[in-house]
Amino acid sequence: MKIKLILIAFVFIFLSTEYTGNFSIISVANAQEQQSRKTKRVGSMSEKVAKKLGEAQELIEAEQIQEGIEILNEILSSKRLSDYERAQVYYFLAYTAYLQEDYKKAINFYKRVLSEEAVPEGLLSAARFTIAQLWFQLEDWDKAISAVDDLLATEDSPRPDLYILKGSALYQLKKYEELIPVIQSAIDLAESRNAFRIEQLQKNIKSTADENGIRYLRREEEDKNEIDYFRFATQVEAELKEDLSKTRKAEQKTEIQLAIDNVKKSASNLAIGPTKENWWLLLRAAYFELDNIPKVRYVLERLLIEWSKKEYWTQLAAIYGQDELEEKQISAYATAYQEGFLEKSNEYVQMAQLYLSKEVPHKAAVVLQTGFDEGIVDKEVKNWRLLSQAWFLAQEDQMAIIALREAAKLSDDGELDVRLARSLANIADYKSCVDAAQTGIEKGGLKRDDESYITLGMCQFEEDMYEDAKNSFKLATNDATARREAALEECSIRENMTKEDFLILFDRQARWEKIGKELENKRLICTIPSSYRTATNWQKFLEKEVERVTLLQNQIKNIQEQLKSKESSTITF
């Protein structure tokens, strides 16, 4: 069993020295932070007792705890012990009880330390703090808080972790309102002991801002006399980067970059200080439970200056999105991506969607394509479709078609195949267009059969498949006619008219609007699919085109026959 220590350093320090006369009250755990305190007379430790305590210590460290306890009890049986010696024995007995996980017994021994009179304040302080820790370990939150309050009442210069212990107990009791000022006290106390360094770093940030004409953008909830230097540094960096992107002169670029580096370094050093990550996490948890999202955002921004972690970036990005701060949301996600924190398919997809929402399709496509290539993004229909959309918007048709082809393969219906056919038609790959359109129609489940057949017919026409194209446009016309009739039926019912009467008035209205004539009655509104006109126009065009091509083919045939019979001199056109 590995011996666990809870501030036992006090005991070993006191064992090594015999104290007489005045005793300088110093807490060993934070001696460097203590100022001069009151002194009090404490008892001395005899050489005999010190030797026995040393023997007990060796046995305990050798995990012979029971044998060590026997020596401690032997010392305790002496009638000539001073208060100080007795307190040291109780401290050791408390420690052995702790090692045996009998925490209540340990607490009782620590309380006996407190009951002695002539005992160094450092030992008393250690006992009080350990009592608070043990009550916390026993999950008796109220007693833990009470023990910390007792300790704070006796400390001239309390340690920040006392407040953290109390705050942790308050969190367990769900007393979030009370918790916040307690944790803030720990943070303020720790930072106040590093005041000069902090002041210099704050001056660096402000002077950089002043030199570049940048004024602090204060939030409504902030005190007019205070500056959030972490946020100010972020603001200064962002504005300087914007200036850098607009500057063309090399000398100015160098100056601005130096200013950016300076403010980043100052902000980073400002964060590296006496506070600990878990303190801020307690504060974040309390604000979250109170639904104080602006404060949660502030804590996350503060955490990320010193502790760049995935969960903080993604949480902050989500809050930015909730607050409709899209630029900051994208920036947070981009940083997480650049630092390699994005590891899941949905994270890559969400980042791509953010880029698309801000009309940056190329970045969306690159992120998503990288996710596919590295096997991170799930190879699902919706993800392939999103990738094809991003590539199309980025005007990278070939890349878009590759993605769309993959999506179509996985799709149960023919919608994506028809969309693929249209994309192939756009790059004049009509043969592949015909294949894709036919596959889509065979799969079925199409939203618009008419438009699908029109796509197929157009590509068949380009491939000189005239008879097939005729049939496709005929099928398109049939479906478009049915849709037109259904639309007219619905509109006439809405206007409380027969379909025939509605159609007469609707056609008259169209003619009058065309010549600019004023309508006699209210304007009729009815959305009729445009595919009907498209399909019929294609049919008419195709008939004329087939007639033209047929004539041309006959002429070519005649020419060939005349050439064969050596009558080329009589060729007429």
Automatic annotation (TrEMBL):
PROSITE patterns: TPR (PS50005)
Keyword terms of this UniProt record: Coiled coil
Coiled coil: 542-569
SMART domains according to UniProt: TPR
InterPro entries to which the protein is assigned, alphabetical: TPR-like_helical_dom_sf (IPR011990), TPR_rpt (IPR019734)
Name of the protein: Uncharacterized protein
